[in-house]
Amino acid sequence: MTGLRSAPEKVPARRRSGRAPTIHDVALAAGVSKSAVSLAIRNQRGVSEATREHILSVAQELGYRSNVWARSLVQGRTGLVGVLLQDLGNSYHRDLTFGVEDTAVENDLRLVIAHGRRDPHRMQAELDSLLALGVEGVVIVSSWVPPQSLERIGRRVPLVVVGRLPERVSGIDTVANHDELGAKLAVEHLVSLGHTRIAHLTGSSRPAAMHRRQAFSEIVRNLLPGIEPQIEGPEHLDAAIKYLIFQLQEETSAPTAVFTQNDRIAADLVGACLDAGLRIPEQLSVVGYDNSSVCRMLRPQLTSVDQPRTEMGRMALEMLLERIGGRIEDRHITIAPSLEVRASTAAPRN
What we know:
The chain is of the alpha/beta class. The N and C termini lie far apart (80 Å). The longest helix has 17 residues, at 207-223. 44% of the residues lie in helices and 15% in strands. It is built from 13 helices and 12 strands. The strands form 2 sheets. The chain has a 6-stranded parallel β-sheet, with helices on both faces. The protein has a 6-stranded mixed β-sheet with strand order 7-6-8-9-10-12, with helices on both faces. Helix 1 (23-30) crosses helix 2 (34-41), helix 1 packs across helix 3 (49-62) and helix 8 (179-193) runs parallel beside helix 9. Residues 21-75 form the HTH lacI-type domain. Pfam families: LacI, Peripla_BP_3. This is Substrate-binding domain-containing protein. Keywords: DNA-binding, Transcription, Transcription regulation.
């Protein structure tokens, strides 16, 4: 156990030389050894609680900050984990990052967040930049990074992808949503309300969107025999929304419900309906996907398939830590979604 030596009567607010205080300065001012300061700052055993509190108080008064880079040279670790986001403006990505962050803090790690801005080339460049910073691993919240790049970078540092890849990549772990089940929950809900004319509105050909679209078609055919599924998109999404509005205004056989690929598209559809004087859900029921913060901002509030985003982020970092710790075998986790029913869905009116 390390004890206290006699300390100076007054701890200086900053070093007279103007340079940043060092661990030696903290030890001198606190009247303890440098090893005691190191143990206290890293919250490790070897000093009493009273000594730890005294050292931390002195360090705060001096304005001391632990040098992560110097410590990494000694330990061979940086304590940094990268998070590569496809779209920082997407609440799904933000919520998922909160789960990564919470788990990182619990494990005394710090995040370095990179933003791909929905640009595949920029995402590749940002991923390379994270590696240059010395991160110990990366959580990639996107399926946009090509498999060959994942394989190449995965040989250098552990990677975990949150999202549905076009194909599995050796050495890369994944956490994904069960897209087919999500589509099933949405369609079953609408059918249970009495809807028989249901459309699907999509704006992407990426794997997750594709599997939702395929599952929608299969479920509609199974639950509503003889009715051909109506799919609008993924090309020319704005035109697809306008066509749905036209159907609602002019055609007696127009859909009475729409299941959208995500909440953002659902919000665009709801806005277009309101602009056209159409009432939600009286004239059209709408189900989104993601259960993002957008759902509670819309009026009426949006029924949506809920991906447990925070939990997915937590699982992703836990898997990354297993990889950093030496796990070799690949892991692929699929998370079951649920349905959050709100006021945007109701029984169709005759």
